[in-house]
Design a protein that fits this description.
The complex is a heterodimer of chains A (about 120) and B (about 110). Chain A has about 120 residues and is an all-beta fold. Helix content of chain A is about 0%, strand content about 55%. Classes of the chains: A mainly beta (about 120), B mainly beta (about 110).
């Protein structure tokens, strides 16, 4: 059963702490996206990678957020230091290398982050 | 002006009726259009995609695209209570960048 996995599913942390979220894309998918979803802003694109290289991270606050893809099976999103306004659900999504022009994205279950 | 606009709803329809969800987009160069369904507390799930003007049908779902009017819609026939969810319209604006609308909440009353 091919699906995107994310860990942790839930994270509660105090302001100022470092948070690391992990994503394993579907095997064979070479494009990975990070999104943040809040009630106020909806689903916002933070960054995305193709073949492990960052293509666009313009949606990400650079001073505290960083995204990497150390290998084809792992993408990470790090927040340091975390702030209460970072509280949201963070989704990872992936696209097949064979997608051509379809760009259909498959989402992971998300990490629900609460910063107190 | 937002790049992808949807009526936030809620849209309420009786069971068995047709639910019509609408979306407009601002980038005329957009080529690919998607509808995702998101149940409360869950992740978005792709249900339809369309690239060409006209209609595309898949079971009870029909996606309609009018590029001249920059308009995409999703029709759900024979609506069921299990269709109650938020429906997100998404538009690929070039390369791999996809912009999502804020979503329309649909309630199907039994």
């Amino acid at each position: 059963d091919a699906r995107v996995t994310q860990t942790p599913r839930h994270k509660v942390t105090e302001m100022g702490q470092e948070v690391t979220m992990r994503c394993q894309p579907i095997l064979g998918h070479n494009t990975v996206f990070w999104y943040r979803q809040t009630m106020m802003q909806g689903l916002e694109l933070l960054a995305y990678f193709r073949n492990r290289a960052p293509l666009d991270d313009s949606g990400m606050p650079k001073d505290r957020f960083s995204a990497e893809m150390p290998d084809a099976t792992l993408a990470t999103l790090k927040i340091q230091p975390s702030e209460p306004r970072d509280s949201a659900v963070y989704f990872c999504a992936s696209v097949s290398a064979e997608a051509g022009n379809s760009y259909e994205q498959y989402f992971g279950p998300g990490t629900r982050l609460t910063v107190t | 002006q937002k790049e992808v606009e949807q009526n936030s709803g809620p849209l309420s329809v009786p069971e068995g009726a047709i639910a019509s969800l609408n979306c407009t987009y601002s980038d005329r160069g957009s080529q690919s259009f998607f509808w995702y369904r998101q149940y409360s507390g869950k992740s978005p799930e792709l249900i339809m995609f369309i690239y060409s003007n006209g209609d595309k049908e898949d079971g009870r779902f029909t996606a309609q695209l009018n590029k001249a009017s920059q308009y995409v819609s999703l029709l759900i026939r024979d609506s069921q209570p299990s269709d109650s969810a938020t429906y997100l319209c998404a538009v690929n604006t070039g390369g791999f960048k996809t912009i999502f609308g804020a979503g329309t909440r649909l309630f199907v009353k039994a």
